[in-house]
Amino acid sequence: MNRDYEKSAANANLPRGRSLWADGLRRLRRRRLAMLCLAVIAAYVLLTGFIYLAETFDWQVSVTNWDEKVGTEYEPPSAGNILGTDFLGQSGLRKTLYGAKVSLTVAFWASVISLGIGVPLGAIAGYFRGVVDEIVVWIYTTLSSIPYILLILAFALVLKGKTIDLGWAGLGIVELSGITTVYLAIGLTSWVGICRLIRAEVMKHKNQQYVLAARSYGCSNMRIIFRHLMPNVFHIVIINLSLRFVSFIQAEVILSFLGLGEKDRPSWGAMIDTARLELPKGHWWEMTAATLAIFFISLALNVFGDALRDSLDPKLRTQ
Amino acid sequence: MTVYIIRRLLYTIPIVFGVLLVTFLLFNVVAGDVTDQIAGKAASAETREEIRAEYGWDKPMFFAWDSQFFNHLKNAVTFDFGRSWSDRELIIDKVKRGAGPSLSLTIPMFLGTLIISISLALIVAFLRGHIVDVVVVLLCVAGMSIPFLSFILFGQYFLAFKWDIFPVFFWPDLSPAHYVLLPALIGIVAGLGGNLRFYRTVMLDEIRNDYVRTAFAKGLSVRRVLFRHVLKNAMIPIITQVVLAIPFLFLGSLLLERFFGIPGLGYLMIEAIGARDFQVISAMTYIGAILFVVFNLITDICYCLVDPRITFE
């Protein structure tokens, strides 16, 4: 049946239908700069994945041995140590590479949390409207009335050092420390934007014919939301997330810098914090290394996110 | 109109209540009784009781007339936030003292960013597609990708420390114009990327309209068309941005104040984070939210005054 249709379509020289995603990805692939940025992002992700594997299987690679003394203290960059050494003689390069793990882990979990809260809440509010909608709108209006930096600081400060009993989930008692606090604070405060977008989009789609058709088949509300509506609005989430990832990475840097983040392992924020006192002494390399590491991933994500938006959602184009 | 304002005012009540609920849940329920932290290990049982009584942690949480939640609401409405843990000063006094230095930094920074980014955006939007436009957009994205901390650290190091153009640090004897110059400059440069890109989009939407073509056809100069006609019509999104940025001006700049030692509200918060002084953070969160809600209200009323088509649903 399907093949017959394809054959007849080819004979009649009709254009074959393409899905939104296929179309968008085709447009995206034509942009060289976007593809270059994707390669940069992939490199950071692969590096993070590699560090996780190396730590799990206890491989002896230089990145995970960042605390090894490779030279004397404050060695400027040289052929041996490209990014110099810090006050303990540890390699700047290894620390910078290891920092990618902290940043990407935080940004990843923060995204998971903010999607996990924002998407279902937005979808349910937009679909059911009424009292549910009013409650959801009240919650996010409240949260967005609090200046973001204060909200995130308040969460990070209060959550730090707390213990949560996750015995019911088989995890025992978990102490919130280091990066766990950071991604919880970022995730719990940043779902508002996504929730608002999804709600507006679901409201727009809800009265379209495919939803009506699904309802006439007798689909349950949950099935309509998650099987029919979600695939049609999810590209908005992807676009939004790629740009939001940058703000998660930058927020991690600021929180770590303020001493609310990872303390025992190198992170870009902690590197900037130590570099603050080193810079006046002329030790510029640690600061430069952390800045460049953040700059490249942020730039790649910014450019790629813009390209993604232009290819997947031509209506939103800014140019 | 009056009905609209009254309804809009009533609408702020659940929001303020929500903000208070959030701060209460965070600082009283999740953080809870932190007597041990304030009193230290060596404190006697008597001291502990005193501290508990002062912050009200011995009272029931929600359901009583004298409950913690009810007192939290009452204190917030009367702007009585109690005393800070670290130095026993009234929190409201600290906030009042910090607002001045913060504003002396943020207002010049804000005005500078606004004037520079709007004028540049007009020019760049006029040159859309030209190589200048492409380069500026790329520079904006690059600027947005550099962490704020790097702007501050490198700016302070090179401009103040190494080349000695500006004073490195706040000093009470210096005039505000003197010590605010460098942090404001750094703030402007760091914020320029995002702002310029935003205003460029606004101006692009406007510049494609027919009246712009008509104005050019009449033979008006480029400057006159851009800064008279286009700018006036682009005012609505600009005003929204401006009014909603005002509450943030009062809160100061956390990182800039920290690095330049300016004793404003940002510095107050940094100190409070270091001392884990929850009362101060809670009060600042509430004040920030109130300012935001008030200025949001003002924006909406302004819209209503400007545009009679807008009604409140």
Give the number of domains of chain A: 1
SSE string of chain B, helix = H, strand = E? HHHHHHHHHHHHHH
Give the N-terminus to C-terminus distance of chain B in angstroms: 13 Å
Q: Shape of chain A from CA axes?
A: globular
Overall average residue pLDDT of chain A: 82
Proportion of beta-strand residues of chain B? under 5%
DSSP E strands of chain A, number: 2
Q: What's the main sheet of chain A like?
A: 2 strands, antiparallel
Put simply, the count of helices of chain B is: 14
Number of domains of chain B: 2
CATH superfamily of the largest domain in chain B, please? MetI-like
Largest interface: A-B, 47 and 46 residues
Task: Characterize the structure shown.
- The complex is a heterodimer of chains A (319) and B (313).
- Chain A is mainly alpha-helical.
- Chain A has one domain: MetI-like (MetI-like fold), CATH 1.10.3720.10.
- Chain A contains 12 helices and 2 strands, in the order ααααααββαααααα.
- Chain A has a two-stranded antiparallel sheet with strand order 1-2.
- In chain A, α7 packs across α10.
- Chain A is globular and about 75 Å long.
- Chain B is mainly α and 313 residues long.
- Chain B has 2 domains: 76 residues, no CATH class; 213 residues, MetI-like fold.
- In chain B, α5 crosses α10 and α5 crosses α13.
- The radius of gyration of chain B is 24 Å and the shape is flat.
- The interface between A and B is large, with 47 and 46 residues.
